[in-house]
Write a structure and sequence with these properties.
The complex is a heterodimer of chains A (about 230) and B (about 230). Chain A has 6 helices and no strands. The longest helix of chain B is centred in the middle third of the chain and has 30 residues. The chains are: A mainly alpha (about 230), B mainly alpha (about 230). The interface between A and B is medium-sized, with 24 and 23 residues.
Chain lengths: ~230, ~230
């Protein structure tokens, strides 16, 4: 049953991604000021939104793990963090390509870019920490604590956009009041559709990663059993 | 009252053992001197430019040398199973943690105050102009470094590759506090007072201290015992 749901999500995600690519690449015109490069925004923004959400979801799973001490939650937190980490790299790379064309440099030490990079470093620490702990319950416990510390840092990142003077383009989506809503509605809707597609893709990856974790736990248990025999 | 005494006992125990061996403070002080020297090769230390990033230089030195003290904080208890004995004692884990934080903070402050005159001589910077403000900033930012450093020292105490993991985890976490400290220190060293302009950074430092102290005190039991 679980397998079938996974396949269904996969098919919907694939169809949605093809539809979005068609709209973004073939239907929508070039942007007046940015030319063709604006299209990268349709991947940059969804990757950023989904990775942020993923880190938050990982935090929630970590908290649940600390409360319930069931390794299933720890596996979920780890999977969500891993997938979000990959998406965070996508965000930085797409942003960097856009910056090269529009700003003329690959990277600017703009506060928001820097803070996003810091988050990436924190979560790479999280993933490395998981690798050096062999005992599953200790791994779950310590990485959950790190996830809580890491996400607190993300909150500071989120606030940073208001605190520091910034080079990063201001909010362009209509849901942000004050300075928002300057984006062409058709272009904005393309970005939102991609949020959905990439969100579904993430759910699928996390579910797949979870299955791997389950298998690994089973293997560990069997190995321990073999040892005792 | 009972807990306060426990915190004081731990802090005094750590300070006493540090004063007897002087391992961490000697190592970090000489390391700080090495970093101060190395940084002078990176640019012309007598230039006007040096003044502009003096705050950054100073905090890099403090962060690098300070972690030498912080890293050892829990690891030193591993010999003779002292950590297990401490955890088995009637002392709550948070009291152990806070006690260690206090002793680390005092050691770090001593290290930093010893570095300041040397820094002033090497880079010809007058650090006495706004000393009261500087002391406040150093105190707050050092507490931020201490809280994070001690917590992660506890978190990694039983890991293999402990020495490798600590810097990877600790420095990215410290960045917001270091950022605030650098901005404020540069302002103060240039003779600008603490005012409405840089109050945001001071608030960031205070907020960082409060948030992470609360988090660490709440979570240290989970980290040390489970």
């Amino acid at each position: 049953m679980r397998e079938k749901i996974l396949y269904a999500i996969g098919i919907v995600t694939g169809a949605l991604l093809v539809r979005n690519l068609y709209v973004i690449l073939l239907q929508l015109p070039d942007e007046a000021k940015q030319d063709a490069i604006w299209r990268i925004f349709c991947f940059h923004l969804p990757a950023a939104i989904v990775s942020f959400t993923g880190f938050f979801v990982a935090l929630v799973f970590s908290l649940i793990y600390l409360a319930k001490r069931n390794l299933k939650w720890d596996a979920l937190a780890a999977s969500a963090t891993e997938v979000s980490f990959a998406l965070a790299i996508v965000t930085l790379v797409t942003g960097s390509i856009w910056a090269r064309i529009i700003w003329g440099v690959w990277w600017a030490w703009d506060p928001r870019l820097t803070s996003y990079f810091i988050c990436l470093l924190i979560y790479s620490g999280y993933l490395m920490l998981r690798r050096v702990i062999d005992e599953p319950t200790t791994r779950g416990r310590l990485s959950s604590v790190l996830s809580i510390f890491g996400f607190t840092n993300i909150v500071i990142v989120w606030k940073s956009i208001e605190w520091w003077a910034t080079l990063h383009p201001g909010p362009v989506l209509s849901i942000r009041s004050g300075g928002g809503g300057r984006m062409n509605p058709a272009m904005e809707s393309a970005a939102w559709w991609n949020v959905l597609a990439i969100g579904l893709l993430t759910v699928m990856f996390v579910a797949m990663r979870m299955r791997q974790e389950d298998t690994r736990r089973e293997l560990d248990a069997l190995r321990r059993l073999a040892h005792t025999i | 009252m009972h807990y306060l005494r426990a915190v004081a006992t731990i802090a005094l125990k750590d300070l006493r053992s540090e004063f007897r061996s002087k391992e961490a403070i000697n190592a970090s002080l000489s390391f700080a001197m090495v970093v101060l020297l190395l940084l002078s090769f990176a640019f012309d230390p007598s230039s006007e430019q040096a003044r502009e990033f003096s705050g950054g230089l100073l905090w890099l030195v403090f962060a690098f040398a300070g972690t030498l003290i912080l890293n050892r904080s829990f690891a030193r208890e591993l010999g003779n199973d002292c950590l297990d004995a401490l955890l088995a004692s009637p002392l709550p884990s948070w009291a152990l943690y806070v006690g260690k934080c206090i002793s680390n903070w005092l050691l770090l402050m001593a290290l930093e105050l010893a570095c300041l005159p040397v820094f002033g001589i090497f880079y010809s910077i007058d650090w006495t102009v706004r000393f009261d403000g500087l002391l406040l900033v150093i105190g707050l930012a050092t507490w931020a470094l201490t809280v994070i450093g001690t917590m992660f020292s506890a978190l990694t105490v039983n890991l293999r590759l402990r020495e490798l993991m600590l810097p990877i985890l600790v420095y990215p976490m410290m960045i917001p506090a270091l950022l605030g400290a650098i901005q404020l220190t540069t302002d103060l060293l240039a003779g600008r007072p603490l005012s409405a302009d840089n109050m945001l950074w001071l608030r960031l430092l205070v907020g960082f201290d409060v948030i992470y102290t609360a988090l660490a005190v709440a979570l240290v039991d989970t980290v040390l015992i489970g």
